[in-house]
Amino acid sequence: MPNGSIKELLASSSLAFTGTVETVRATTVPDVPVNDRTVVVQVGEVLRSPPEVAVPSGSRVTVQLSPDLPPLNPGDQRTFFTNGWVYGENVAVIEVGRSSVEEAAAPTARMAGLEASVSPVAAAMAELAQDEVVEHARGADAIVRARVVGLSAVPETVQYREHDPSWWIATLETDLVERGELPGVTGGVGTVAVLYANSIDIHWRESPKPKAGQGGLWLLHRTTGELARWAPFQLLHPIDLQPSIQLDLLREHGI
Amino acid sequence: MLRIVNIIPRTLSAEFQQDSEPNIAVNPEDPKQIVATAFTRDPGGGQLAPVFVSRDGGETWELRLIVPGGLSTRDITVGFGTRGGALYAGILTFADAKLNILRTDNPFALAPMTVLVERDKEDQPWTTAVTTGADGGQDHVYIGHNDRNPAPHTASVFLSQDARTPAPPAGFATDAVERRDTAGVDGPPVRPAAHPDGTVYAAFQRWVDQLAAGSTFLDLKVDVVVVRDDAFATGANPFSALIDPNDGTAGVRVVTDRFVHFTAKTGPLGQERIGADMSIAVDPTTSDNVWIAWCDRVGGQAGTDWTIHVRRSTDRGQTWSDDLRTVTNAKNPALAVNDRGLLGFMFQQLIGTGAAARWVTQLELTSGAFTPPVTNFVLHTALFSEPPRIFLPYLGDYIRLVAVGEDFYGIFSGSNLPDMANFPNGVTYQRNADFDAHTLLGTDNVTPVGISVDPFFVHYSPD
């Protein structure tokens, strides 16, 4: 096994593809400094890419190989785990790690709920997505299943800057409390006020903005400082709202 | 010659983000070297934000990941020293919205920029630089910023007299240019403009009084103030050369008690917010001449307009003309003066009403202070409603125009719908697009991509 598991490599990279080294000490992107670890790779199969980056099969990508891994020669085939560096007429990437093509791309892994096998990359990406939710939930101060029954602006909100959060309060009606002490909720049933940034300024574009009637599994964070007078909990992260079915996942991980 | 280029590279043809609030810097020693910015993210979601770079005068562009602080920025402006090729940036980091001042001695070298300064409670850094020294090695850098640390005197300028090589903080210190009381803060835009002879101007909005407030707006009484320094702001009391004759305070009030409707959270003007628009430009042929543009609501509290005003001073900011140009329902004024004294004025205007209203980005050129003839180019026009807004600002809280020699270089953001009718003076796309079918295409040149907001580079060269 190479420099880290497939899962570890995926966690630290954004673009993974199989490919064949065409030339060494070469680049398809001007200004990329060329040394004996700069290679041009013909892309075989893209295993993972950001939604806005398309590196078609057959295209050529400049890869700055990791200094911690052996150099490669023309004809060598690998799975490359990389991060973006330059996007122009062509793409240059920086290698994080690599594996053999078979280790990453062959359909040898299994995923729950699927009969057919999938590639280790696909399986690892599914695990990473789950891990992100699980780890985030571990840090939550409360986890409830609830729906939005009220939305209101925090009184006395006056904006002095374009980047002010514009605090609003969502009232959540709970039917299950998986974790946390919530005043006003007994036996899992009740209501809890949750603060969130309602501004659509770029500073707050990622902040969750509950909608009327919206339901699911809410990962809540205790409000601190002066804001605590408005609501005991806050929504801070895009993944603070999960489908209710994620409750099973969290319970499997002891949350 | 007028050239307009969509700077999204071909390998990002599948991108669909709102790349608003652009900025630009041109290397005066080699104007083929250009750096541009916008609210563009690292497509891979990494830890470095991108800049766009061109080595061929803006004909082709690449996206490079060299800005520390997260996958994007929350504000970013850039400026080259006038010699030596160093690039400076003022940003608000994605991670925690702290102001960072950054430097690289070569933005084409692919190494991450160096953090020189980090500071909390800040807003809207605006970067400009001028170089002196027999060896062309001394970069004077001025970064206007709205600094809430010394509230209520928040309009400020970070400055360094020799920023190119020293270790952080490279001589940077901040000076509050607001010397009067305010309504708690000044407005977001603080714009410096430096001349090689040592004259440095800065313009800002003094928020005098709050007239009304709600959860979505502030109604304000505002002064437009200009300060000046005559020696690169090296003295013990920088930016004190201009004294207002009416109150004896440093900083001439170009206009007073103007009504501003500040809407940070809503977009009353074609999906775009209003309240903070300002530009200042000093004439390279003589620092006595300085131009200013700002926006306010002429109709007052009962009004609905948002009007750009352009004025000039020919006595180093002591007195100012009346409005030489006004543009109604417009924002993002950007001024620059070339070395012939020709003023370039770029702006974005909402023209029309109802569903048919369009954002029209224009460049005007005048050598006679807007006395006809004035050359007007429509750079871009698009329906205000397409694409739908993802966040604010929709187009940007600013655009930028700079002059190098006789040429003007600018950048604006707008709908990327590939329709030549939207570009009366032409356009070049790097990203894949079918202009016959009015469709953007992915990197495979087949898959349709939805329209979004892209940054567009502009280059005007007088023949």
Describe the structure.
The complex is a heterodimer of chains A (255) and B (463). Chain A has helices at 6-11, 101-105, 120-138, 246-252, and strands at 15-24, 38-48, 60-64, 77-87, 91-99, 142-153, 167-179, 185-186, 189-197, 215-222, 233-234, 241-242. Chain A is mainly β and 255 residues long. In chain A, the strands form 2 sheets. In chain A, strands 1-2-3-5-4 form a 5-stranded mixed barrel. In chain A, 41% of the residues are buried. Chain B has a 5-stranded mixed β-sheet, with no helix packed on it. Chain B is globular. Chain B is 0% helix and 47% strand. At the A-B interface, β4 of A face β5 of B. β4 (77-87) of chain A pairs antiparallel with β5 (62-68) of chain B, so a sheet runs across the interface.
Strands ordered across the widest β-sheet of chain B:
26-27-32-1-28
Rg over alpha carbons of chain A: 23 Å
- Placed side by side, the strands forming the largest sheet of chain A appear as 1-2-3-5-4
User: Largest interface, per-chain counts?
Assistant: A-B, 40 and 56 residues
Strand content of chain B: over 45%
User: Which structural class do the helices and strands of chain A define?
Assistant: mainly beta
Biggest pleated sheet of chain A: 5 strands, mixed, barrel
Q: If helices are DSSP runs of H or I spanning 4 or more residues, what is the number of helices of chain B?
A: 0
Instruction: Using the alpha-carbon principal axes, give the shape of chain A.
Output: elongated
Classify the oligomer: heterodimer
User: Tally of extended strands of chain B?
Assistant: 32
Question: Low-confidence stretches of chain A at least 5 residues in length (pLDDT < 50)?
Answer: none
Helices and strands of chain B: which structural class? mainly beta
N-to-C terminal Cα separation of chain A, in Å?
32 Å
> Largest beta sheet of chain B, briefly?
5 strands, mixed
Mean pLDDT reading of chain B: 96
Radius of gyration of chain B: 20 Å
What does the average pLDDT of chain A come to? 91
- N-to-C span of chain B: 7 Å
